[in-house]
Amino acid sequence: MQRKLTITISDEVYRGLHHLVGRGEISRFIETLVRPHVVADEALETEYRQAARDEAAEREALEWIEADLGETPE
Predict the structure, then answer these.
(1) CA distance to 4, 21, 23, 37, 65, per residue, from 31 (Å)
(2) What is the spatial distance between Cα 15 and Cα 8, in angstroms, rounded to a whole number?
(3) Is 35 exposed, middle or buried (0-12, 13-18, 19+ CB in 10 A)?
């Protein structure tokens, strides 16, 4: 099912969208950008949960995060 949504954007943004993706493709372009932020990816969520339960991998990741590589900040 699809819903129609009315949004308000500046003329400049509309012209950019129209130029970049074309008039008939704006809705699809916006949905493609927004979807990952608002629709849960259950498979990815499951993989993250499984990875978090891997204690050895978590310890190794923590070691990498806390490693002093001898680099000096600029």
Answers:
(1) 12, 13, 14, 10, 35
(2) 13
(3) exposed
Q: What is the pTM of this model?
A: 0.52
**What is the Cα–Cα distance from 19 to 25, expressed in whole angstroms?**
11
* Averaged pLDDT in 10-residue chunks for the chain of 74 residues: 93 96 93 87 81 87 82 66
Q: For residues 56 and 12, what is the distance between their CA atoms, to the nearest angstrom?
A: 51
Q: Decide: 21 and 29 in contact? Cβ < 8 Å.
A: yes
Residue pair 36/42 in contact by the 8 Å Cβ criterion:
no
